[in-house]
Design goal:
Strand content of chain A: 15-25%
Strand order of the largest sheet of chain A: 1-2-10-7-8-9
Oligomer: homodimer
Largest interface: A-B, 16 and 16 residues
CATH topology of the largest domain in chain A: Rossmann fold
Order of helices and strands of chain A: HEHEHHEHEHEHEHEHEHHEHHHE
Structural class of chain A: alpha/beta
Number of domains of chain A: 2
Number of strands of chain A: 10
Distance between the termini of chain A: 41 Å
Number of helices of chain A: 14
Shape of chain A: globular
Radius of gyration of chain A: 18 Å
């Protein structure tokens, strides 16, 4: 488990390499939902997503010896870009295993940040086997995308900024995929302002966190079919344990509400966010009674979306 | 003609009713264009566009007697929303003449801000005749969308904010339609930092400002066919005269570059802007030699776009 000091140390470590992202509000949305909503805009973050926080904290906290042989991970998404950029900022190599069916634009982005890409068959087994070989061959340091306390401490700096800005919302809503951001948010909030409830939101069609939360047992994600490509993974044992201790509720939202919420954010806030970010406002839409007359901070996790393939 | 004091007075008048919009930068775009570019984000402005500045200054500077009978204008775009909201803020009636083929979403927006809408046939003649009747009947005060010094002074507050923020760019680029924003930008810059060049940008397919600038005679817009629905109108005599005195160049840009620039802004800055705003970055793309190694402020005029009908 990590302490408040770990989170504050992470904040110092990531500050030179990340943006302190702005918080936006919309009076129209407040009237529409009868709540006082603020949006933490991680879509404006470096690499277009909060993931740079955790990756930077992990990479920058390695000892000189650990860092010398580089870092490695497998990912087809924002974590790959985050580790690549964090490694470049430290001046070390990032080995990234990506599935051969990864989109060209994602491949180009990782290479653009200096990541050394190894392609493999598009299965989890192939990804893990390929990564294993690279770790053996290079001695690189593995950086897990979420079930790692350094990653969690890094992601916690997002909620830390909200609370350090003096905002003391009744509720913070965070998307949950693997649970790195959810765990960091829950811990930062627990340490700084335990009166704020942390609620996790996920697609109904990728409801492993909700099933885990309700059953009290870590349930894997099974064949998730959702527009939220950032919320497909299962929780890890660390993120699961933080969720059980410090998260108030896990709300599942429909695909229709995710898309409607995403569009509403684009139209009213005039910002580009990805579907995975919109589950937060979708939760407010789908469960109005929970949010009515409350002050609510929604974490908009990222803005990396294919503009030629929008869901409406 | 207006003075710096007129612009400063306008700034005081509009401040309570408008946002001081942020300026954004992107290191990636700077590298791509070999320039130091900042973006003034009027897409985040009230009503989603800079037009609220001019309308507010005009409405708030009316005497009690002038204001008593309300205000009126004809517009199918952002000016209609701006006048409606400014009138509501002053507690007076706004009579808005709109063409019967105006999009339902625009109609709803104007009504949402409390504007009293009169529909007419979709021709300029019908719009002017209908407005004339309303003015006769109500005694309302007419507010022209751009060829009015109060409007120009209001729009000038946008460049005033850029310069008051301490930014002293080599070049400010503004879109030009009717020329209210262009004139205000040119005058504010002339008074505060004449070393900064003001460049106007417009679509090749709506090149009346360029033709007017080159010929030295006010040329009307003839059947403009462009994706930039905010840049269809002709200059007025006031905006034309300011352009001839204080604008350095009028650059025309292709539809392809407008769409490419718009998409680049969405992808890199993660913000929603309308095509009319993107002519500014399109000018940087199309005329690289003019902007290379320069510091440049681009005014992103608005973000009101139909998300179901994007141009890519």
């Amino acid at each position: 488990m990590i302490t408040l000091k770990d989170i504050r140390d992470a904040a110092k470590r990531v500050a030179p390499y990340t943006h302190r992202t702005p918080v936006m509000i919309s009076h129209q949305l407040n009237r529409m939902f009868n709540a006082e909503i603020c949006f933490k805009c991680e879509n404006f973050q470096k690499i277009g997503a909060f993931k740079i926080r955790g990756a930077t904290n992990a990479v920058m906290s390695l000892s000189v010896e650990e860092a010398a042989k580089g870092v490695a991970t497998h990912s087809s998404g924002n974590h790959a870009q985050a580790v690549s950029l964090a490694a470049r900022n430290r001046g070390i190599t990032a080995h990234i295993v990506m599935p051969s069916n990864a989109k060209a634009v994602k491949l180009a982005a990782v290479k653009g940040y200096g990541g050394e890409v190894t392609l493999c068959a598009p299965t989890l087994a192939a990804r893990e086997a390929t990564l294993e070989k690279i770790l053996e061959k290079t001695g690189a340091h593995m950086i897990h995308p979420y079930n790692d306390w350094r990653i969690i401490a890094g992601q916690a700096t997002c909620a830390l900024e909200i609370l350090d800005d003096g905002v003391r919302p009744d509720i913070i809503v965070t998307p949950v995929g693997g649970g790195g951001l959810m765990s960091g948010t829950a811990l930062a909030t627990h340490y700084i302002h335990p009166g704020t409830k942390v609620i996790a939101a996920e697609p109904e069609k990728a409801d492993d966190a909700h099933r885990s939360f309700t059953s009290g047992k870590l349930q894997p994600s099974v064949d998730p079919q959702t527009v939220c490509d950032g919320l497909l993974t299962s929780l890890g044992n660390n993120t699961f344990s933080v969720m059980m201790k410090h998260v108030s509720a896990v709300l599942t939202v429909s695909e229709d509400n995710i898309i409607a919420a995403m569009r509403l954010i684009w139209e009213r806030l005039k910002i580009v966010v990805e579907p995975s970010a919109a589950v937060t406002l979708a939760a407010v839409m789908q469960y109005p009674d929970r949010f009515q007359d409350q002050s609510v901070a929604l974490i908009l996790t990222g803005g990396n979306v294919d503009l030629a393939d929008l869901p409406w």
